[in-house]
Amino acid sequence: MTKKVAAKRSPVVFPKNRKILEQLGENIRLACKRRAYTQTLISERTGLGRLTIRKIEQGDPTVSIGHYVAVLSVLGLVEDFAQVANDDELGRKLQDIKLLGEQKRHSQ
């Protein structure tokens, strides 16, 4: 029986979002420097290769989000990641609009 090997697909990342990933990578790189953590140290503590650490510091979109989390964990910053989308202002506004619309229908 032969196994089909799925072709690796690179994520489609638009320029604006690529800039955000690059900023994340720069933030991670600076956090490492502030702590005097080398790529080798981060590699040893995460089990990731130094090339992957370098890609993370560059904000490479092909690196798995789990790898970013592993590095943030070593830096003691993984809780910052947990805050992403925590305060969903747009989602609450959309929900409120829907709820107000339902309220108007019930009161008529």
TrEMBL record:
GO terms for molecular function: DNA binding. Coiled coil: none annotated. It comes from Granulosicoccus antarcticus IMCC3135. SUPFAM superfamilies: lambda repressor-like DNA-binding domains. Residues 28-81 form the HTH cro/C1-type domain. This is HTH cro/C1-type domain-containing protein. CDD domains: HTH_XRE (cd00093).
